[in-house]
Amino acid sequence: MEFLNPKDCEEKKISDVITELTDVGANYTFECIGLAFVMQDAFDSVREGWGRTIILGVESQSTPLSINTWRE
Q1: Strand partners, 46
Q2: 17 has which bridge partners?
Q3: pLDDT one-digit tens code per residue, 2-58
């Protein structure tokens, strides 16, 4: 299990750092902060076609969340 601080990732997106560390993305990601952009990062960090994102709670600032499940 790894824990990453996005502040330590310089200019890279956290999802890119996770993909680099794992070669394929995380099997599971958990989001429990309640911010749409963190939910999106959690989804972008999982293994394509298999990974699971678990979102605990609801978005706290009423920001819409639109997740594209088809990646390029």
Answers
A1: 26
A2: none
A3: 788 888 888 999 999 999 999 999 999 999 999 999 999 999 999 988 899 999 988
